[in-house]
Amino acid sequence: MSKSISVGVIGAGVMGEALIAALISYGVKPELITISEKRKERADELVKRYGISVAELTGKVSKAQALLLVVKPQDMADVLAEIKSSLNPDAVVVTFAAGKTISFITDALGTGNPVIRVMPNTATLVGAGMAAISLGRGVSAEQSDFVTGFLAATGKVVEVPEDLQDAVTAASGSGPAYFFRFVEAMVEGAKALGLSQEIATELTVQTMIGAAKLLESSGKSATTLRENVTSPNGTTAAALASFDADNISTMVATAMKAARDRSQELA
């Protein structure tokens, strides 16, 4: 699939904008990208920022060769009902809605268009995202390569069977929020020990950044790195023993299962 194709984006919120930026970075010309956005001021902002265009929903989908659905799960059914009669029969439909299966999309459309399901995460906004894609029936190699290609401009991409998409949602889709919650807890813990909000935040954030870079670049597992910085009977060992006493692994696994189960409920 050529980069010189018409791309429609339905939903121009934060994630929608990140995908627009990724498309342009990948090499799709801005004039070939059209958005549908109910908020006129938001649409005007993106047109000015990226040089893309705005069109009415049905008019856009009739021309788009790749259609990105970046809408909330609860809004998906209404959007599909509105576009199905106007959809370009040759278009690949790419859905970013948590929990909404490929079969849900294909059944609601009833058009036979190939569908690709994607679970991104919020780090997409800074080019360090993690996206997992699943391919529906009839997706061509060119269509798959196009979607994988522009998503790679937002970070990393893996392909998984669709029945694992709910697990992906629990791991990487919701994962940044777990990280942010842990940072909040560390900042509060540092403040309780007497540090100011500013210093506690700077210490925590830079520690997280450094640890993530070390994990990425060292080639070592998280287990090995943890063991390397844990001296017997030292300060780190005392903190980790407290985590283990509170069953941190069980706590995290239970939380991730709750996210997975909720993703399944959204189907």
Please tag this protein with its features:
267 residues; 12 helices; ProC C-terminal domain-like fold; 8 strands; alpha/beta; 2 domains; Rossmann fold
Walk me through what this model shows.
The chain is elongated, with a radius of gyration of 21 Å. It has an eight-stranded mixed beta sheet with strand order 3-2-1-4-5-6-7-8, sandwiched between helices. The chain folds into two domains: 7-165, NAD(P)-binding Rossmann-like Domain (Rossmann fold); 175-265, ProC C-terminal domain-like (ProC C-terminal domain-like fold), CATH 1.10.3730. It has twelve helices and eight strands. Helix 7 (165-173) crosses helix 12 (248-265). It starts with 6 loop residues before the first strand and ends with a helix. By secondary structure, it is an alpha/beta fold. It has helices at residues 14-26, 40-50, 57-61, 76-83, 102-109, 141-152, 165-173, 175-192, 197-218, 222-228, 235-245, 248-265, and strands at residues 7-10, 33-36, 53-54, 66-69, 92-95, 115-119, 129-135, 155-159. The mean pLDDT is 94. Helix content is 53%, strand content 13%.
